[in-house]
Amino acid sequence: MRLHEKVLVLIPVLLVALAAGCEPSSARLDPAARRARLEAIRLTAAADVFRECKDSVVNIGLKRQDPANPALTHLEFGSGIVLHEAGYILTNAHAFRHGGTLGVGFHQGREYPGRLVALDEQRDLAVIKIDPEQPVKPLRLGRSADLVVGEQVVTLGNPYGMGMTVTYGIVSAIGRATKSDYSFYPDMIQTSASINPGSSGGPLLNVFGECVGINTTEKMGANNIGFAIPSDRIRAELAEVLSPQGRYGFILGLSVAADGLARVTEVAKGSPAEAAGVRVGDLVIRAGQTSVASALDLSLALMPFRAGQTLPLLILREGRSIDLAVTLAKDEPRAPDAVDAVVPGLVCDVYEGAWKSLPDFASLRPAATEKVQTFDLGKHKGRHLFGLKITGYLQVPAEGVYTFYAASDDGSRLYIGDRLVVDNDGMHSMWEKYGFIPLKAGKHAITVTYFEHAGEHGLKVSWEGPGIKKQPIPASALFSRGPDK
Asked: How is domain 342-481 classified at the CATH fold level?
């Protein structure tokens, strides 16, 4: 054998010997210790997060019959996170655009029927409720403000209805804006973690197992570009999405801190909360049968209640636990305005000016006054640096709680009488906000104000109420005073 051939034969032998020499003698002699060392390597951050969070993430299914062919069934899938042990779950609103029978499943195999309790199309957030036999495990909401580009993140979800699936990646960017066929999404987290249809509504998790975002959409036609709604925005907006007092027309009369513990910051004069003995500084720790640790928890606790019912409150005051009972008052429906002679259409005052927020139109002289049929920009579409004040009367068909929506670019507000129902002020792209008000049947004074600074422009006003699905307010329901009035 030649010398170089002998060297080639010896090299693999030497490498094996060296490898064996580098391994700790205890590992060579103790298979259990070696296995423990390998198990520690095997347990990645993604594996640890999955083990910690899998019981707080759900699979969502929506089943509906084809309207043209009842024998054909359509299935749609999504994901969600447990918000509260009482069975409240957060997901994306776009999962419900086609409706259907709602089912919720957990990783362990438990399944429950679900019901939709709140939905916000603009924010693409929805809250559903299940009724579990025992408390379910909430997912911890983390902070998205301190996310670092490049840090590891993990997703859990139900892609294509396959069941609980874990993927991982990094935070690719922060503050991204994107658009889908459902909504426009500002200030999103971009991630390289794989997101597929059905993953929507599932959590984006940091390595501590905290939810830092809700996975919402992927970049169509791209690989490993997904987007999540930041958790800080969810925390700030969910109480408004729920709005139990406005949604169901009752009054409690207290406010708690928006962040941190549910400490009472305000008690309205003459309110049910004041009558029951609630004080500023009290810490709410239970409402009804629901534990309360934040403003969001209090909003969730109020969802089952209605006017006239008694809400048990457990508060902590100066170290003492105190039980209180609050009888929820009815938010009395607004009486219609006494107006006789009316004609179809609205009155629109047009103003000229450059504003960054809605001005006090009452202190300004309009450049023109016009008659319009609906709440839109009409012939002013395409212009800049102007404002509108559109007034008239809305014919309300039945008594009940109504939801009004104002979508605009830039700012807008909607009033019923002198009550501000929707405040969508400020310079922003097309964005929709909403509010609630109980009304009696009849004609109610309605005012919409709007300003356009520069850039894109738009105004759309919609409503929803007893027997009315969400839709633009039709011209047939809008009037103004007749010529003799």
From this structure: Jelly Rolls (2.60.120)
